[in-house]
Each structure stands twice: as C-alpha cells, then as structure tokens.
Amino acid sequence: MASAARAEAVAPQRTSRPLRAWQQAALEQYEQESPKDFLVTATPGAGKTTFALTLAARLLQRREVARVIVVCPTDHLRLQWAEAADRMGIVLDPNLTNAVGPVRAGTQGYVTTYAQVAGKPMLHAARATAVKTVVILDEVHHAGDGLSWGEAVEEAYGFAARRLCLTGTPFRTKPDERIPFVRYEEDGFEGDDGEGGMGLVSRADYTYGYKEALADSVVRPVVFAAYTGTSRWRNSAGEVVAASLSEAGTRSVEMQAWRTALDPKGQWVPHVIAAMDDRITHLREEGGMPDAAGLILASDQDDARAYAKIVRRVTGKAPELILSDDPKASKKIERFATGSARIAVCVRMISEGVDVPRAAVLAWMTSYRTPLFFAQAVGRVVRARAAHESATVFLPAVRPLLSLAASMEEQRNHVMPPPKAQDPEGLDLEPLPAKEREPVTMKQFEALEADARFAHVLHSGTAHTGEGRPATGRAGDDMAAEEEDFLGIPGLLTPEQTASLLARRDEELRLRIAQRVHDDDTGELPIVEDHPDEDDAGRSWRDAAELRREVNRLVARVAAKTSRPHGVVHTELRKAVPGPPSASASVEVLRARRERLRTML
Predict the structure, then answer these.
(1) How far apart are CA 278 and CA 388, in angstroms?
(2) Where is the Helicase ATP-binding domain (predicted)?
C-alpha cells in the first residue's frame, strides 16, 4: 500500500487535453526507438511544449526518469514552462538559482536558462546526474550562441540519461559552432555568393513544418502585406539621396532606404501603424476575434518608445511598451497576453517562445533580417485557436524580408556552412547582435523623410498587386462581400482580390493619417488641395508622386507576371529609359517609364 501511494505521488496527473496527430506520432516514434537523444523540429505554434511535457510525464510515470530539467532562452519562458508543466501535474521550480545547490524537495525538477547553465555547468551536471534525468533543451540553437554556451551545455548534460532537443526555426551558425546533441551529416551547401561547398546539416528525428501545420489547421494562414515608399536621407558626404524601398539597386542603398523608412520622424511608420490598427479593428468587429491584438517589433528601445507615442497619436490608445531592461517586462507580457490592449510595442521580448494566442497582426518595424528571427517573430501570430482565424504581417517591401516571407513553407535544417560560404557581412550568421545607436551628425547618415504606400500581397512566393481587377466590389465583381469579409475566412478571397482590397483601404487611410499625426497642439487639420490639372503636371510634386506610385505598381505587376524580383525589373527599366531612380526622376522620365512598363504587360 505504501509503495502504491508513493508511485501515485510521483506519477503526474496528465491533462485530458487530446494530443494533435503530429504529437501522437512523434511520441509513438520516440517510444519505439527509446533514444538517448531526440531532436524535434516543429513550426512555431505547433505545440512543442505540450509534446515535450507529455513525453516527460510518461517517462516519470514509468519511472524511466526521476527528474525533469528544462533549459530555455529567457527568464520569462521559465515561468511559462513551469505553468504549463503544472497544468500537467509536473512540479518544476522556475526560480532555482545557481546559488542553490540541490534541487528543492517537493519538486520533480526545475527550469533554467542557457545563460545560467553557462555560469556553472558543473553544478547543473551534478543536478542532472544525481538521479536519472530527462533534459529538455528548448530552442536548442541557443546552444550554438558562441562556443562557451555550447561547451557549457555539453559539459552540463553530457551524462544525462535522456535529452530531448526542440527547435522551430531555421537558423545558421558559424562553421565552428556545432550544437551539442544534434546529429549532423555532410551535405552540399550553396552560400550567399552562389558558390557551393560541403557543409554540415542537422538531421531531426521528427519534423513538423509550417505547411503540414497549416493543412492541419494547427497554425493560421499568413497574409504578408508589403509596403513600399520613397525615402530621402543625407549621406556621410552631405548629399541628399532618394530611393524607393522596392527599387533600391544595391544592398547599401536598400539598407539606407529601409533605415530611413523606419525612422519615427517620417510618414512610413504612422501609415503602416494605421493600416495595422484598421486590420485589428476589423478582426475585433467583423472577424470573430473580439480580443485580437497586434505586435510592433522595433530595432531598439529608443525606436520602441517613439513608436509607442505614434501608436497613441494614430489610434488614440496607448500601447503596451515592453522593453528588455524593464524589470516588469514579464508581467507586462502576461498582462498583454491575457488582457484587452490592442497593440504591444517591443524590441526582442516577444520574439521566441512567448505565447500570445490573441496576437494576429504583426508590424515589422525592425532592421533585423535573419531567418531565425523572422520565423520566431512570425511564429508569435500564427498560433491557431479557431479554424477561421488568419494572421497578417505588415512589412517593408525590401528584398531580404520578401525572400524570407516567400520561403515560409520551406523545410530548413540547421546549417553549418564551410568557411568560404560564410556571409562576409555576417547578416544571416550572427544571432542578432546588440544594436548600438550612433550619434547622428551632419557628417553621418541622417534620415530626412519617408512616405508609405501599399505595394503587394505575398502569397506562396508570388506578389499580387490587385491592379488586374476592380477593387470596389461593384458591377458584378466577385468581391462584392469584401466589406463584410475584409481578409476574413481564409480562401474566401483570392490573393489578387486580397491585394486589391488592401490597396483600396490603403488609399482611404491617407487623409486619416494626415489628420491624426498633425501637430496635436494646434488642433488644426492640414489643408488638402485639389489635384492640379494635367497641364500643370510639370510643376506639381503631387503629379510626380502619383506617377511614382503608378510606376511602382506597374513594376510589381511585371515582377509578378515574370517571376522576377522587383529590383531586377527596376534595373531593366532604368536601362530602357535612362535617368535617375524614380524617387528623384522628373515627370517626363516617369511618364516614359510608365509607358514602357505598360508595353511589358
């Protein structure tokens, strides 16, 4: 009787929540193989936590292990893991520090971070070998964040009874940063310079990708709404440069145009925030998500604070501002996840593992562009709760982000490229280095202004501009129900119809933004002049701006038709019709380019 009571005490009371098909299949495979190491790659939002804790519960119940240790990236995730474990009857201590020796009595393990393990690897090794232990390495790519972390994780858990590695994002590391407990095989690798080589590629024991999760309605379908615009800045030589986000020819010009667009003083940011707010309003009022929320990702804390002020001006409501150095950051995330606030502005606090199921809209206002961070961030808005829900991501129409969006459905493993394939600029290899803000002077880069306009919707790797059909929903057009189903039930609207609808709503936002962002102290609205006659076009900046918009829309149509990048079409256009970039071209040049593009359709 006593032994039965003790067995019942150590056997966790599992939740009655049914497992998803992929979780059940992965568990069956694990139990058949009973491996020491097992790597699961599952798309963000698929339910890796539930899978891992269910496996841990079974191992505890069968007495194959007596302790569970979870290693995760951040302190906030420690609490999240502990709460999830508690719901399954597993008591994990989320507050155990390196200053405390043994695992506390009354618990079945603890949750720690990679940084803590790196601080005292031998302490964690002693805890993991005192009794039979299963170690769950959440987002295991963090064990490749520098050699010291990888070595510490290997030292701490090299002799643990079982190790379960979890990841859900594509990532790359430097050639000498092999992740512990991950199986690698030699494979052909194509570097960013187009040259090939033999690198090492990870091999997961079980893989569940975004495409499979989408088919199973485990994750929401994502609509990528790309916004272009003309940016103007002063370079280090004191020259004023203008370029379109989607037209910039070189990487350096593209990055400067992107940086200028993200500047809080311009009009790109408030315009996209207004579009984001419009989407949230529709989801709450018509889309069956009364608690729908949005996330804005900023590059640094200064930008985040500035964006929060813009959100308040544009929407009339203060957002939740979540900063990494704020001691109340975890509480703010929890409050936002369970509350009713519409928008949260953050830097990196809501990028990986944080669960905010009601978040369905994301505004990408950061210069980060690694596949790892992109998948993590988009993963915050794809977690499905109901079959009819969809996610919308607003992003700059720049090549690095459009490429990542187009490859969302690709299956990608961890790649360790050969040394010669390493990106010379470190854009994709480094795990998000901290950004240092330099003082801006006249001798350095200075953002001047930027505007915004809808470019296209990205669907299955193809850009749809919506120019090919009317967007009014009248005269028998099959978009008659668009006002009721603004990006509503997935599959209701075709990608072209979705693009057409977004383009029309984008135009409707312009006057509203101009009115809201105008100086609040004056209480005056900007003067809206009549559009000049065609005869005055040569003297009208308004007509030039409209021509630029038309040229960009036509370029997008040609790019979609020919499956070529926008930048390639822009380059060919400038060769056919010589002159400066469209951002600084004359009305005559813009008209000639417009006519040239029309002949290409």
Answers:
(1) 19
(2) 29-188
The owner of tokens 């240092």 is: 436
CATH of domain 2-213: 3.40.50.300
Element holding 68 (H helix, E strand): strand 67-72
Letter for the amino acid at 72?
C
Place of tokens 């990841």: 167
Residue with tokens 């190491």: 37
Task: Work out the burial of residue 78: count CB atoms within 10 Å of its CB; fewer than 13 is exposed, 13-18 middle, 19 or more buried.
Answer: buried
Q: By the 8 A CB rule, do 144 and 150 touch?
A: yes
pTM: 0.65
> Do you know the residue count of the chain?
601
The DSSP bridge pattern shows strands 196-202 and 343-346 to be unpaired
CATH superfamily of 220-409+443-471+492-517: P-loop containing nucleotide triphosphate hydrolases (3.40.50.300)
C-alpha span between 397 and 31 (Å, rounded): 46
pLDDT tens for 244-302 read 888 767 888 889 999 999 999 999 999 999 999 988 988 888 878 899 999 999 989 99
As a dihedral over the C-alpha atoms of residue 67, residue 70, residue 75, residue 79, rounded to 10 degrees, the angle is -70
Average pLDDT over residues 374-396: 83
Give the three-state DSSP class for 510: helix
The percent of residues above 70 in pLDDT, for the chain, comes to 71
- In 3D, which of 206, 154, 162, 146 has the Cα closest to residue 180? 154
Contact indicator for 535, 587 with CB cutoff of 8 Å: no
Q: List % helix, strand, coil for the chain (3-state, nearest 5).
A: 40, 20, 40
Average per-residue pLDDT in the chain?
77
In the numeric block, the tokens 């199986």 are attached to 183
In whole angstroms, what is the distance from residue 135 CA to residue 71 CA?
8
Distance CA 19, CA 22 (A): 8
